[in-house]
Amino acid sequence: MAEDAHNPEDNNPARLDKLIEAQKIMQERMKQLETQLQEARKGQKDPKNDQQELKEDIHEADDAGNEQMEMRLEGLGETIETYVSGILDSVSDSLEGAMQGMFARAERDTARSQRRAEKARRRAERVQRKLSKKRFRLTEEDLASIPEEGAKILSVLADTNRLKILQELERGPDYQKDISERTGIKGGQWKHHTDSLKAALLIDQEAVRGRYIITQLGLEAYKLAEMLYIRKKTYENEIATDRNADFDEPDGVDVSID
Which CATH architecture has domain 144-239? Predict the structure, then answer.
């Protein structure tokens, strides 16, 4: 006997109710989806509005970036200003310290020079007092040595360059460079002449500053040469005047030559 292929559960009332209820739920869900789709379509924005909003967002971002950049630059400027101010303060302190040191050294050097000058003055006064108490007198031996010693002194003066050096130093102490520029005496020639003048005690040189100075003996020697030159010129003028007078025509005498 053939089996019946129909499933008896298909005619079950409970199962049919469940199928009907599931179908209703699906229909309601479809309605909800359609409603959401319509709302979504209505809520779509205009592309132009989107572009405007995008531009506004970009401007806002730029403004925010500019504000941040300005804040950073302002902070950087303050940092640089502080750094430069510190450097300037440091340099100012260094210069101030250096200047104070220079002034202090200058004051010490000035005080030292004044003390040395005072010692030299007192020493000169003592020598002067000794000479005033006991007049210096030449002995027979000294008198006999005058031609030889006098020739030595005059041989030192018998040079144009040495007299030029004495002439420059007569105006006051000066450095080799300045005297050489004015006289043209330089190098080995300068050393040769200044050594001769030093050996004759006519000039001297400062130990600290290195300037050359003329001694009292050197001043007298230069004045002697100056006096001899003036006397020579005066004597020559007198001789020339006398000779011209000898050739003057006597009154009432005709000495013309035909």
Answer: Orthogonal Bundle (1.10)
What span, in angstroms and rounded, lies between the C-alpha atoms of 166 and 214?
7
Exposed, middle or buried by CB within 10 Å (0-12, 13-18, 19+), for 84? exposed
C-alpha–C-alpha distance, residues 168 and 222, integer Å: 11
CA distance 114 to 134: 30
- The CA distance from 126 to 50, in Å, is 112
| Helix, coil or strand: residue 214 | strand
Given a contact cutoff of 8 angstroms between Cβ atoms, the answer to whether 169 and 212 are in contact is yes
Single pTM value for the model: 0.42
What pLDDT, in 10s, does the model give residues 204-243? 999 888 999 999 999 999 998 899 899 988 988 888 887 7
Long-range contacts formed by 23-28: CB under 8 A, 24+ apart: none
